[in-house]
Amino acid sequence: MHSALVRVQNVFGFFTTVAFCTAIVIALSVTVIPQAPSTSLELRNIQVYVSAFADVSNCANIVFFVRVKGRPHYHSPKKEEYAHIRFDLDADLTSLFNWNTKQVFAWITATYPPKTLSEPPSQAIIWDAIISSEAQKNPSTPFTLYAHLTSPSKKATKARRSSKSKQEVELAPGLIRLKNSKPKYQITDISGQLSGTTNVTLEFGWNVQPWVGALTWTMGEGNSWGRWRGLKGGRSKAFDMPGLKVKGVNQEAVKGSGKPEKAAEASPIVK
Fold this sequence. Notes:
Layout (H helix, E strand, L loop, with lengths): L3 H26 L8 E14 L10 E6 L12 E13 L8 E12 L9 E11 L1 H4 L4 H8 L4 H13 L8 E7 L5 E2 L12 E10 L5 E2 L6 E2 L2 E2 L2 E2 L16 E6 L16
Parallel strand pairs: 1-12
Antiparallel strand pairs: 1-3, 2-13, 3-6, 3-7, 4-5, 4-8, 8-9, 10-11
């Protein structure tokens, strides 16, 4: 007769086998679900600025920080240009969400030709966002199940109704509507020069992070894999960087090791 330890090992081995097989079935089952994401991406406005470094040669015990608007934590010892790109984005990624989708990471890159032909195209991210699934935003736990089974109090029900009436109608997960949106990141080049750059395009990309299985990335327009179709749209028309815009730079004197102010953060609304 088997000992208790052997029986526990057999039960645990059977459990892990069943869990592993179930995970494989879940990961493969999403391949039969059609996917056809589509986006419309357009340039709204672009400005190129230059930053300058302060002269601290005659200063004692005082540290001067050159603070560029929108980048309070960025200090460079050289002159360099950076671009501020506004855009319109209308994306429908709802087909990427299924029972095995945990979240989708989306981003927009500015792509432009390299300085020399031997180098690959330069890319810089100007915006990104994490779009969580309903299961990720509202996870089901024994505590939430108990809360649903128990009848809520009258005060809680009244407060819930009042808060729900004040909220806007939420979009389905994967729908993005951004009009004249500010960039989350202002970009620069390793050479320090961006003005006059030609043939620049904005490109949209995504990465699906499942609960179980492999990560999937953007498929270009025209590509397909089974019932999955490539991203329709997702690229703006080519444009050129404008010339430099004269912009004042604020200098801030901080004695000792003063801390700069907190950086402003962009928070576009996506669902």
